[in-house]
Design brief:
This protein is an alpha/beta fold. It contains 31 helices and 24 strands. The radius of gyration is 34 Å and the shape is globular. The protein binds adenosine-5'-diphosphate and magnesium ion.
Length: about 800
């Protein structure tokens, strides 16, 4: 490994800056120097330099015991020496390449290579990493020295507590320091192995290493060795079997006698080898990672400095340091994430002016009065928040969260109406064509109560008598003919359509607006930060509201939707009967079917969700057809059933939905992939097959399809053979109707992977941060806000490194936004 004087210089300069109080390095400067010197000396080949270098006695330094004056003098002299060495190199046009110390007259080729080395160099610059090995690291996503530094162990073994041999207890992980009395090759289980006897002042113990005869050469008599591992018993006596071991030399321990890192490796990489490599890399390079956090933030939050955090995350001095390292690194992740989402928000709020859309109070009042119901308090509050945002010249970006059936659509409609009343266009986007169609008819229905329909077409409605001009609402979906679609697009472009409803894709890709003022995005699980940005690129910087029925705990909301403000409709319209939920045993299937028959005979309708099949959509579709035929022919031969699955054409889907909506079909059979986000108040039964295999939030979504009318509704969950965890889930969903509570439970039971799957959401990777880091996340967010307050565009030179780091984490992972 080539050596660079840079880390030494940095540490010493830091020590100066801190006032020579031996605080530059955790664990003290001496420890760092001893380590550093061991490696430096190896790489100095010039005898003259080596002689001068040795005068400083770095390998045996005793900085801790010096007076402050002595410390200053000593450090100054070393820094002077380094300046001399580095300066000499700079004259030759090089910045302190490691060989500067070792090769006074380097060959030009070697020199060039050395000068190019940085922590962003490929890992092959590390001595001991061949290109074959680099390929193995690449499989772990590790390509540069920086990647290697950020390749943290998944856990540590605590070998830091030393015991004497007499204190060893069977079955526990123990560490001893002992003398090798004898090591010999032996055969164990037919394999060549090593067997040793080691001892300390309290006794002797046997140690064996299976399948490893080579240790005999290393463990010569009287060498001192650290052994860490589980204590076993063989023939009544203690024995260590293939423990970690390390010779006691002047260097810091790596494999034993400390908190030993365990890395998640791929085949062909060996733990001992990687650990040793890592120690070298960390010692040499961690100090060169520039700390991108503003110093006063580090101070305020009592965080470790970045180089220390990285080095302690790999080779912690103790548990306390390990924790502090994790906190610092997790803070970085959360802080950068918050900075990223907040800067996106800033970009669209400040980057281009938005449109202040006033509230036409008369129109709003007329509309609200015409509704067949009174708005709930939560709806009123959310609407007020939205209208408040619309009135400001910065573009709104608001998440409207509300449980299924809480009445988000009417709130969105009122806001869209206000945009139209002010001469802007509004857009409502749904994830599927079915939902878009349903929104269209819902909105038209609401408007019909208050305005006079003039032109009625399947895809366009014109209303008079509400605004001072006609109000035109259109549905733009793939099912309509090309000619018609082009006609609609033309009318959206020339501004004669006020409110357009469609799918995400249509509005994103094909449609240009005359004057888009407000975009409402419904059920946007698939609508990430980047898509929201794309929408804003359309030129008008519209106000954006995202509606979701998936309750997201606050931690996640801040993370996944940190760029949005939050409105919550936390109240259901009054008079709703709670959906009765029951988890049924397989033997009760027949009675479930009978129950459905009875409900239908009373004039109700039912949903049946097909079993979850995790294979391809095609296989799932085929299975759904089989299930549908079984239900239609054998179970409900006298009833009318419809089928929805992912392979059915949009037009056919639409037709089936329409027939169910109109009451012509009694039962709608659907695969879980199909959005059944439709509002059929007459449907009172939801039967979910293989319910044990769905998450709580998803089951709750299914259940939300019923209970929308005046009649008592029921949700029946069938589970063939639920696991322990699944039983727990089913119990919870049976007893809880609160979507937020279910989401929290879901997180606890399934872990954050599903929700926090940051790759999926297009956010930077979180390695150190955990879902439970709520407090840290709040701190990170408030620090990020504070920073933007002080330096809105992060132009301040002291934030240069931060900006660089931000660009690094947000571009490397952000390829796949979904
Ligand atoms: P969400 O989209 O939030 O799941 P919807 O907007 O589809 O809910 O509303 C569900 C049903 O409740 C609709 O039939 C709607 O007309 C009705 N609704 C909405 N608000 C109220 C209210 N304040 N009182 C009574 N019914 C309401
Ligand atoms: Mg809805």
């Amino acid at each position: 490994m080539s050596l660079n004087a840079e880390p030494l210089r940095k540490i010493l300069e830091l020590e100066c800056k801190k006032g020579y109080v031996d605080s530059a390095v955790i664990g003290g400067l001496d420890k760092f120097l001893h380590n550093w010197a061991g490696q430096a000396v190896e790489s100095i080949t010039s005898p003259q330099l080596l002689r001068r270098f040795n005068k400083f006695h770095l390998a045996k330094s005793d900085y801790a015991s010096l007076s402050k004056e002595q410390r200053k003098e000593w450090i100054d002299s070393i820094l002077g020496f380094l300046v001399e060495v580095e300066g000499g190199e700079k004259e030759k046009g090089k910045v302190s390449p490691p060989e500067a110390v070792s090769k006074p007259t380097p060959k030009p080729r070697a020199k060039r290579a050395a000068a190019a080395q940085s922590i962003d160099s490929p890992i092959t610059i590390v001595k001991g990493i061949s290109s074959t090995m680099a390929a193995k690291f690449a499989r772990l996503g590790v390509k540069t020295v920086r990647d290697l530094l950020y390749f943290f162990p998944h856990r540590h073994l605590d070998y830091s507590q030393r015991k004497t041999i007499s204190q060893l207890a069977e079955g526990t992980e123990e560490t001893i320091v002992a003398n090798v009395w004898e090591a010999r090759e032996t055969r164990l289980g037919g394999r060549r192995s090593t067997e040793a006897t080691v001892g300390d002042e309290t006794g002797n113990v046997r140690v064996v290493w299976f399948n490893n005869p080579y240790l005999v050469k290393t463990l010569t008599t009287n060498t001192r060795v650290v052994i860490s591992g589980r204590v076993g018993v063989f023939k009544g006596r203690h024995v260590f079997q293939s423990p970690e071991w390390e010779l006691i030399e002047d260097r810091e321990l790596v494999h034993a006698g400390r908190l030993v890192p365990l890395y998640s490796l791929t085949s062909g990489l060996h733990p001992r080898q990687v650990r040793k490599l890592m120690k070298g890399v960390v010692d040499q390079w961690a100090w060169q990672v520039e700390d991108f956090l503003p110093p006063e933030l580090i101070e305020r939050q009592k965080l470790l400095e970045l180089p220390q955090a990285i080095s302690q995350a790999h080779f912690p001095d103790d548990e306390g340091m390990k924790t502090r390292a994790r906190v610092r690194l997790a803070f970085d992740e959360l802080f950068l994430l918050q900075l990223g989402v907040l800067s996106k928000k800033r970009d669209w709020q400040e980057g281009q002016p938005g449109n202040a859309i006033g509230t036409d109070k008369a129109v709003l009042e007329t509309f609200i009065k015409s509704l067949p119901f009174e708005l709930t308090g939560a709806q009123k509050k959310s609407l007020e928040e939205m209208l408040g945002d619309l009135g400001r010249p910065q573009a709104m970006s608001r998440l409207l969260q509300g449980d299924v059936g809480s009445g988000k659509t009417v709130v969105a409609t009122a806001a869209l109406l206000m945009a139209a009343a002010s001469g802007y266009q509004g857009a409502l986007m749904a994830p599927t064509e079915i939902l878009a169609g349903q929104h269209f008819s819902t909105i038209c229905q609401l408007l019909s109560a208050v305005a006079k329909p003039e032109e009625t077409d399947d895809y366009i409605r014109v209303y008079s008598e509400l605004l001072s001009r006609p109000l035109t609402v259109a549905l733009l979906i793939g099912a309509i003919t090309q000619t018609k679609k082009r006609g609609l697009q033309q009318r959206i472009l020339d501004g004669s359509i006020d409110i357009v409803i469609g799918t995400h894709a249509l509005i994103q890709k094909e449609v240009e607006f005359y004057k888009l003022g407000l975009a409402v995005i419904d059920e946007q699980h698939r609508f990430g930060v980047e898509q929201r940005s794309a929408l804003r690129q359309k030129g008008f910087n519209p106000h954006v509201s995202v509606m979701t029925a998936t309750p997201i705990p606050r931690t996640l909301a801040l993370t996944l939707y940190g760029d949005l403000d939050l409105s919550v409709i936390d109240e259901l319209p009054p008079g709703r009967l709670a959906v009765k939920t029951k988890w049924l045993k397989p033997a009760q299937r027949k009675s479930a079917y009978n129950f459905i028959k009875k409900q239908i005979s009373e004039g109700r309708q039912a949903f049946i969700i097909c079993p979850l099949i995790e294979e391809s959509e095609a296989i799932q579709a085929r299975a759904a057809v089989v299930e549908y035929e079984r239900l239609a022919n054998e179970v409900f031969p006298e009833l009318k059933l419809g089928l929805l699955h992912g392979r059915i054409s949009t037009a056919d889907k639409e037709e089936v939905m329409q027939r169910f909506y109109s009451g012509e079909l009694h039962i709608l059979v659907a695969t879980p992939v199909v959005e059944v986000g439709i509002d059929v108040p007459n449907a009172t039964v939801m039967l979910v097959e293989s319910a044990d295999r769905f998450g709580l939030s998803q089951l709750h979504q299914f259940r939300g399809r019923v209970g929308r009318g005046q009649e008592q509704s029921y949700c029946m969950l069938l589970a063939e053979n639920p696991s322990q965890v699944a039983r727990q889930r089913l119990d919870i969903i049976e007893s809880t109707l609160d979507g937020f509570q279910l989401a929290e439970e879901d997180l606890k039971l399934r872990g954050p992977g599903e929700f926090f799957g940051t790759r999926q959401s297009g956010l930077p990777d979180l390695r150190m941060a955990k879902i439970s880091d709520v407090a840290l996340l709040e701190i990170a967010r408030s620090e990020a806000l504070k920073l933007f307050e002080k330096d809105k565009n992060l132009q301040n030179p002291e934030h240069k490194l931060l900006v660089k780091e931000l660009a690094r984490v947000w571009t490397s992972e952000a390829g796949e936004w979904s």
